């Protein structure tokens, strides 16, 4: 009996110590969304349960090792105890109840993270190897749309992300928002986020998507409603100004489609050839021939990247983007300015 | 003395073969592409293949595994040239590909190579003879000494050791891969796997992805071979059978895994693959040709798993000793049955899912291509329908080892034998209903997530029964702690960490944060180390004397344990922590702004300590084979039948059959016995 009382007390002490230890280890990043609230609450409940179950197993285990260890010179066997059916039933049924309670709490918790605000701002998200493209609601006055590789959202308002992928599976994750959702080619997936704390965060692609998966990160900026509106106006003005010239329109396309993820504009090496000083230069192809990078070559390489492959870039081919002829001409015009 | 000489000759030929193959490869590359590519794939592939083949030639001569490998090389080339020839004849625009052969030529060549290996090694000789009406003896005598391990043997103990040694070799390779990329992760930014780094036609980040993916699959295959090793060696012995039910199929199941491992290694030099071991399309539909070698390698290794488990079930059902009723089976046999049921019925699904992607790549069938009406999420369902139960394939035998060894070192019966036995079956069955918990963020039907949360949490119940029964077994025992017992205790502790970190992944909303982060990486390393690696080491230390008649060095065994266990806790707890803070899994580099550099450095040091401890284990293993302390008797004072006869065992296990006359784990019950040999009865 003495053994059971000692172990009981030790289990309680150990549970408290483990939980305090877990809590002080700084396990979760800042919680910056309404969805993070219920998730962190369930997580905390799970940490308490884990602390208890951990102690429940480890304490009697270590206690047995210390107290019941074989004494020197003792060669006899231990007391013959085969089992105890009542005990086995207890530790089958009680955990069964416990996990069912957790499954119920988990369902309710999931529902809480999915609470719908019908007024939510809709942002279209496209994942591209290896960048993010965010399309904001059209400006009612001009009909113009802001397209950016940064996600700007106002604090306190729900945003509905309607997401898809151009190529492979990606996954939208901002650790401070907790929730995560894959982007699947050929279908639209949704994620609702209500940011609660202003600040600069990053969306980090969580599903392995190829060579530069690690760098598929873009800023997520939560600001006040006023700052958000100001940013939108600024972007609209900039877009309007850039859209006036072909090279400006090309620059908009390039930044929205994340071309810089592979093609540097300053001559730095990358996954694809740099665009700096590319126009008019001689390009060596993988079959040993050379071509001059004129308009026709650049347009062809955007339209059908797998036809003429630049030497040294054989292993990572560019996907085909569905650009129109005009868009391609604009991008080429932009590349011409990079020298 | 003879061993040292042949080993030296093997190593010498390894170097010569490597250089020669590398040279031939360089030459071929020069002929086809016109440039000298020193870090290119063709040279590396030839170098690797010839080096390995030459090593075995030096060690063993032109027979058995050497002949298999030679035939595999020749078969691969013949198959490759066959398809290349057809492409040339029909005027295909691309006769050769980026890696010498075109992709279809590589796939067909690899397939021919596997079949050639099987014929070359000679594992189908008897079947071919029977097909031609020629009789062969029921049993083939093995040559004495170590030679039998390098050729086809029908003895379950030889095959068990072949499996185990192959598993250890793959663990060493997969572990080395892990240490390489763990070093890269020691600090943020790229250290040595930079974008200008080139190896096997891959840049640093590409090599990282390939090594990370290969680490996963090499470890998984090594686990499958490892459990087959223990089951093959132990199960017939402890049920009192003279061999497995189908010895030839048993040998086939082992030997098919060897060319499969070669294919997996070939993927490294054929452009690698950057999808992780999960091989999700569309990414896997775009990856280099190495992807196909991975698919084909896993497909081939799957045969080993399916046939091996069929054999285990048949052996247990048909060949038990007299009196060994269901509730008197050694507990490890229950675990083996549970694991074999899963492996026999689920492995087909991973083979199927990989085959569908292979066909999508080869024939343009759009199974998972959204543009052609395919569905990428369907792949994940097919894949996880095997790959989740596979986790239980990995851990159930390990949990069986824990339950089997615990009573021996506690000197007390296994607490609640029936409950422990049934919990293995319960885990196996519930395990079939939980696969979509890997897909909570995948975009599958959102409401489906809830039933999968319920079924997943249910797994905790039978797992809990095991833990409580183990603790109750320890309670009041007279506990001894030699090396095998240390690893058993370590296994319980580590598996507990894995088990407790499972439910937060099962509840959907918390999993939305945890999914695809290092938290998961830490969680499954805990389950796999606790459920397989620690028990595997325990089993090796425990049954090593049975196989060799010598025991492994206790001191170095304890060094191995005390170095590995704390390091492992530091590593996996560190992984979970950085994962919660924003570290995604499978990334070559991480944002310095996350402030995780110090944690990663500590984790890297811990990983190297684990590597060092395993190196100590390997040295201990090889040294003890020849020089270990003699241990031919019942070293652990066990009741199990295999320890009632001297080590090492006869070819057909027992000279006289035994009968089961009592409970397996009645330690502490005076005068009781588990088995009685027929000869004893006559007296």
Quick overview:
The complex is a heterodimer of chains A (339) and B (683). With 339 residues, chain A is an alpha+beta fold. Chain A is built from 7 helices and 12 strands.
Could you outline the blueprint of secondary structure elements for this entry?
The complex is a heterodimer of chains A (339) and B (683).
Chain A (H helix, E strand, L loop, with lengths): L1 H23 L11 H32 L17 H29 L7 E8 L2 E5 L11 E2 L2 E4 L4 E7 L4 E4 L6 E4 L5 E5 L5 E6 L12 E7 L1 H19 L2 H11 L25 E3 L5 E3 L2 H9 L21 H12 L3
Helix pairs in contact in A: 1-2, 2-3, 4-5, 5-7, 6-7
Chain B lengths: L1 H32 L7 H20 L3 H26 L6 E2 L2 E2 L1 H19 L3 H7 L24 H29 L13 E2 L2 E2 H36 L7 H9 L1 H13 L13 H4 L3 H29 L12 H33 L12 H35 L6 H14 L18 H10 L1 H15 L8 H18 L2 H4 L1 H7 L3 H31 L1 E2 L2 H27 L16 H31 L1 E2 L27 E3 L14 E3 H5 L1
Antiparallel strand pairs in B: 1-2, 3-4, 5-6, 7-8
Helix pairs in contact in B: 1-2, 2-3, 3-4, 4-11, 6-7, 6-8, 6-22, 7-9, 7-11, 7-13, 7-20, 8-11, 9-11, 11-12, 12-13, 12-14, 13-14, 13-16, 13-17, 13-20, 14-16, 17-20, 17-21, 20-21, 21-22
């Amino acid at each position: 009996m003495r053994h059971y009382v000692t172990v009981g007390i030790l289990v309680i002490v150990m549970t408290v110590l483990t939980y305090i230890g877990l809590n002080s280890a700084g396990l979760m990043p800042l919680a910056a969304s309404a969805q993070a609230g219920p998730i962190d609450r369930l997580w905390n409940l799970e940490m308490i349960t884990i602390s208890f179950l951990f102690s429940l197993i480890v304490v009697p285990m270590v206690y047995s090792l210390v107290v019941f260890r074989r004494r020197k010179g003792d060669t006899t066997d231990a007391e013959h105890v085969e089992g105890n059916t009542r005990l086995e039933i207890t530790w089958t049924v009680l955990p069964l109840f416990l996990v069912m309670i957790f499954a119920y709490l988990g369902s309710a918790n999931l529902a809480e993270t999915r609470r719908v605000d019908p007024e939510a701002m809709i942002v279209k998200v496209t994942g591209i190897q290896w960048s993010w493209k965010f399309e904001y609601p059209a400006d009612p006055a001009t009909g113009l749309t802001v397209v950016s590789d940064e996600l700007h959202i106002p604090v306190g308002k729900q945003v509905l992300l309607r997401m898809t992928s151009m190529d492979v599976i990606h996954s939208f994750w901002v650790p401070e928002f907790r929730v995560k959702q894959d982007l699947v080619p050929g279908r639209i997936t949704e994620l609702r986020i209500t940011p609660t704390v202003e600040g600069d965060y990053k969306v980090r692609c969580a599903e392995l998507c190829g060579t530069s998966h690690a760098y598929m990160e873009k800023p997520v900026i939560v600001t006040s409603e006023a700052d958000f509106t100001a940013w939108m106006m600024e972007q609209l003005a900039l877009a309007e100004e850039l859209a006036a010239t072909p090279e400006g329109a090309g620059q908009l396309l390039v930044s929205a489609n994340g071309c810089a993820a592979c093609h540097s504009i300053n001559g730095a090496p990358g996954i694809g050839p740099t665009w700096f000083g590319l126009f008019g230069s001689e390009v060596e192809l993988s079959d040993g021939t050379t071509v001059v990078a004129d308009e026709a070559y650049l347009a062809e390489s955007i339209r059908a990247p797998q036809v003429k492959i630049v030497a040294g870039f054989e292993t990572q081919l560019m996907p085909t983007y569905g650009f129109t002829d005009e868009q391609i001409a604009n991008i080429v015009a932009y590349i011409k300015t990079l020298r | 003395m003879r061993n040292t000489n042949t080993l030296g000759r093997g190593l010498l030929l390894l170097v010569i073969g490597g250089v020669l193959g590398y040279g031939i490869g360089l030459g071929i590359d020069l002929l086809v592409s016109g440039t000298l590519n020193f870090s290119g794939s063709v040279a590396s592939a030839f170098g690797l293949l010839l080096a390995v083949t030459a090593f075995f030639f030096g060690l063993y001569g032109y027979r058995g595994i050497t002949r298999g490998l030679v035939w595999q090389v020749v078969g691969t080339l013949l198959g490759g040239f066959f398809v290349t020839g057809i492409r040339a004849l029909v005027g295909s625009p691309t006769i050769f590909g980026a890696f010498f052969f075109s992709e279809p030529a590589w796939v067909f060549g690899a397939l021919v190579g596997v079949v050639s290996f099987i014929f070359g090694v000679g594992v189908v000789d008897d079947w071919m003879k029977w097909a031609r009406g020629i009789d062969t003896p029921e049993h083939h005598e093995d040559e004495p000494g170590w030679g039998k391990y390098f050729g086809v043997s029908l003895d379950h103990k030889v095959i068990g050791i072949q499996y185990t040694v192959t598993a250890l070799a793959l663990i060493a390779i997969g572990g080395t891969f892990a240490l390489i990329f763990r070093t890269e992760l020691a600090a943020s930014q790229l250290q040595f796997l930079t974008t200008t780094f080139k190896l096997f036609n891959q840049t640093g980040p590409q090599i990282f992805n390939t090594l990370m993916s290969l680490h996963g699959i090499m470890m998984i295959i090594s686990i499958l071979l490892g459990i087959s090793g223990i089951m093959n060696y132990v199960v017939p012995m402890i049920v009192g059978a003279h061999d497995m039910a189908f010895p030839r199929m048993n040998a086939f199941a082992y030997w098919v895994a060897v060319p499969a491992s070669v294919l997996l290694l070939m993927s490294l030099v054929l452009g690698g693959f950057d999808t992780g071991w999960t091989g999700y399309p569309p990414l896997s539909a775009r990856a280099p040709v190495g992807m196909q070698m991975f698919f084909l390698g896993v497909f081939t290794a799957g045969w080993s798993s399916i046939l091996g488990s069929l054999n285990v079930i048949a052996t247990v059902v048909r060949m038990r000793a007299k009196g060994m009723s269901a509730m008197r089976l050694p507990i490890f046999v229950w675990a083996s049955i549970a694991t074999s049921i899963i492996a026999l019925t689920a492995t087909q699904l991973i083979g199927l899912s990989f085959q569908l992607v292979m066909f999508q790549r080869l024939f343009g069938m759009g199974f998972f291509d959204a543009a052609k009406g395919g569905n990428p999420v369907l792949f994940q369902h097919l894949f996880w329908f095997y790959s989740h139960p596979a986790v239980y394939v990995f851990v159930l035998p390990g949990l069986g080892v824990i339950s089997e060894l615990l009573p021996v070192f506690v000197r007390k019966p296994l607490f609640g034998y029936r409950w422990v036995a049934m919990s293995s079956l319960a885990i196996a069955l519930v395990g079939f209903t939980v696969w979509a918990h890997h897909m909570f963020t995948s975009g599958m039907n959102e409401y489906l997530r809830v039933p999968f949360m319920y079924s997943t949490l249910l797994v905790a119940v039978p797992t809990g029964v095991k833990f409580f029964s183990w603790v109750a077994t320890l309670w009041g025992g007279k506990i001894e702690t030699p090396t095998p017992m240390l690893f058993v205790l370590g296994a319980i502790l580590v598996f507990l960490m894995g088990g407790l970190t499972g439910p937060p992944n099962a509840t959907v909303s918390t999993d939305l944060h945890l999914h695809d982060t290092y938290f998961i990486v830490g969680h499954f390393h805990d389950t796999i180390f606790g459920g397989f690696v620690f028990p595997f080491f325990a089993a090796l230390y425990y049954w090593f004397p049975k196989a060799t008649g010598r025991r492994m060095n206790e001191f170095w065994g304890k060094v191995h344990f005390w170095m590995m266990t704390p390091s492992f806790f530091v590593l996996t707890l560190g992984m979970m922590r950085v994962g919660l803070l924003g570290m995604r899994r499978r990334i070559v580099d991480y944002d310095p702004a996350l402030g995780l550099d110090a944690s990663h450095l500590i984790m890297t040091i811990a990983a190297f300590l684990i590597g060092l401890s395993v190196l100590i284990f390997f040295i201990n293993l090889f040294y003890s084979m020849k020089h270990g302390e003699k241990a031919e008797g019942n070293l652990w004072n066990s009741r199990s039948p295999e320890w009632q006869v001297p080590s090492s065992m006869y070819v057909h296990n027992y000279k006289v059959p035994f009968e089961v006359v009592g409970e397996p784990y009645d330690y502490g019950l005076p005068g009781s016995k588990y088995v009685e040999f027929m000869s004893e009865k006559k007296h």
